[in-house]
Automatic annotation (TrEMBL):
<dbReference type="InterPro" id="IPR004593">
    <property type="entry name" value="SbcD"/>
</dbReference>
<keyword id="KW-0540">Nuclease</keyword>
<dbReference type="InterPro" id="IPR026843">
    <property type="entry name" value="SbcD_C"/>
</dbReference>
<keyword id="KW-0233">DNA recombination</keyword>
<keyword id="KW-0378">Hydrolase</keyword>
<dbReference type="GO" id="GO:0004519">
    <property type="term" value="F:endonuclease activity"/>
</dbReference>
<comment type="similarity">
    <text>Belongs to the SbcD family.</text>
</comment>
<feature type="domain" description="Nuclease SbcCD subunit D C-terminal">
    <location>
        <begin position="267"/>
        <end position="355"/>
    </location>
</feature>
<dbReference type="Pfam" id="PF12320">
    <property type="entry name" value="SbcD_C"/>
</dbReference>
<comment type="subunit">
    <text>Heterodimer of SbcC and SbcD.</text>
</comment>
<dbReference type="Pfam" id="PF00149">
    <property type="entry name" value="Metallophos"/>
</dbReference>
<feature type="domain" description="Calcineurin-like phosphoesterase">
    <location>
        <begin position="1"/>
        <end position="218"/>
    </location>
</feature>
<dbReference type="GO" id="GO:0006260">
    <property type="term" value="P:DNA replication"/>
</dbReference>
<keyword id="KW-0269">Exonuclease</keyword>
<keyword id="KW-0255">Endonuclease</keyword>
<dbReference type="InterPro" id="IPR029052">
    <property type="entry name" value="Metallo-depent_PP-like"/>
</dbReference>
<comment type="function">
    <text>SbcCD cleaves DNA hairpin structures. These structures can inhibit DNA replication and are intermediates in certain DNA recombination reactions. The complex acts as a 3'-&gt;5' double strand exonuclease that can open hairpins. It also has a 5' single-strand endonuclease activity.</text>
</comment>
């Protein structure tokens, strides 16, 4: 069976205030063309279809167009919700849509109920594991400790239980939206940390022929059977070196996996440039990026006047400006943002405690801080789902 694995469309998202709707529509055109030309048997979409719980109408229309075109090709689609999606909204009408071969899996209770497709070699069971927010699904999975690993492990127990009663030779595909250990994140994924931990080991998925992952935006191979497709478009400048692709997976009669990357259209390349403004405006080596989307980091000791206007004369698609003045290592004027770079919210809070009283929080206090941050994040998730 030939599968096309994609994820993280984030329909409705902009890139530094530039609309990506046309680029996303071009990706959908490309997706449909690949399905047709490569004779794909099934499409797996591993979550974050939309960029937010209540997407703009233009994004909903593009999603509707994509589903109609895939249904017209007669190619089944299995799709799960991600942490950016509203599972309830995405799943509305799933029963009716399923009759057209578009199988939406957004309910945690359905993790162990597969979509069963067949080819000349027998059945392939597709299990959809939507994004599982630990605090919201702990009762469904009856886990004592609400953490990503425990709820995913419980969901996979349901998958294996169902697999055990399937006919001999039935192959298995799991779609999941999670941060799996070994994956490389970028700046554009939403933090899903719980209790200071957001990743789960790849071993959670042992025993499955293929695992189609979503959430991380870089295409990655964790094992031959566990892969991220990544997002079809770049959503942050940290992705400037990403090769945006989908996975074309051939699942053999014995479950063997052959994988090929299919490139996605690039609306405009990305470039990060750094230096003093005068240098950036004069450096002939930067001629190659004048038509890129540009993020410029200025290192001038003093902020120049109207830097964006000057940069835009040479780089008409400059979108983001960072000011990082050159300072000596011990200079007290080193910016607060630089001191906080790459530190989590919890680490920032612990540093604040240490600054105020002279000693950092002990183990019990760290647990209180973690619980507070988790509670805020869960409250935000609940409010978004309820919108």
């Amino acid at each position: 069976m030939r599968l096309l694995h994609t994820s993280d469309w984030h329909l409705g998202r902009a890139f530094h205030r530039v609309s990506l709707l046309d680029a996303q529509a071009a990706f959908i055109d490309h997706l449909v063309a690949v399905v047709r030309e490569q004779r794909v048997d099934a499409v797996a979409v591993a979550g974050d279809v939309y960029d937010r719980a209540v997407p703009p109408l233009s994004a909903v229309e593009l999603f509707d167009d994509a589903l109609h075109r895939l249904a017209d090709l007669g190619v089944p689609v299995v799709m799960i919700s991600g942490n950016h999606d509203s599972a309830r909204r995405l799943g509305v009408g799933a029963g009716l849509i399923g009759r057209a071969g578009i199988h939406l899996r957004t309910a945690p209770a359905e993790c162990g109920t597969p979509v069963v497709l067949s080819d000349e070699h027998g059945d392939v069971a597709f299990y959809g594991l939507p994004y599982l927010e630990p605090a919201l699904v702990k009762d469904e999975f009856k886990v004592d400790k609400p953490a990503h690993e425990t709820v995913l492990a419980a969901a996979m127990d349901r998958v294996r239980e169902d697999m055990s009663v399937r006919g001999e030779g039935t192959r298995s595909v799991v779609l999941a939206h999670a941060f799996v250990t070994g994956g490389e994140p970028s700046d554009s994924e939403r933090d899903i940390t719980v209790g200071g931990v957001q990743s789960v080991p790849a071993g959670v998925f042992d025993g499955v022929d293929y695992v189609a992952l979503g959430h991380l935006h870089g295409c990655q191979t964790l094992t031959e059977r566990v892969r991220y497709s990544g997002s079809p478009l770049a959503y942050s400048f940290s992705e400037q070196h990403h090769r945006k692709t989908m996975w074309l997976i051939d699942l053999g009669p014995d479950g063997a996996v052959e994988a090929e990357r299919i490139d996605c259209p690039v609306p405009r390349p990305l470039a990060r440039i750094e230096g003093r403004l005068e240098e950036l405006l004069a450096d002939p080596g930067l001629d190659r990026v004048t038509e890129h989307w540009v993020e410029a980091t200025l290192t001038d000791p003093v902020r120049p006047a109207e830097p964006m206007a000057q940069l835009a004369e040479r780089f008409p698609h400059v979108l983001n400006l960072v000011f990082a003045p050159e300072r000596a290592p011990g200079d007290p004027q080193v910016s607060y943002a630089q001191r906080l770079k790459d530190r989590s919210d919890e680490e920032v809070a612990e540093d604040f405690v240490a600054h105020v009283r002279g000693t950092g929080p002990d183990g019990a206090e760290q647990a209180v801080l973690r619980a507070a941050f988790d509670a805020v994040r869960v409250d935000d998730t609940v409010r978004e789902v309820a919108r």
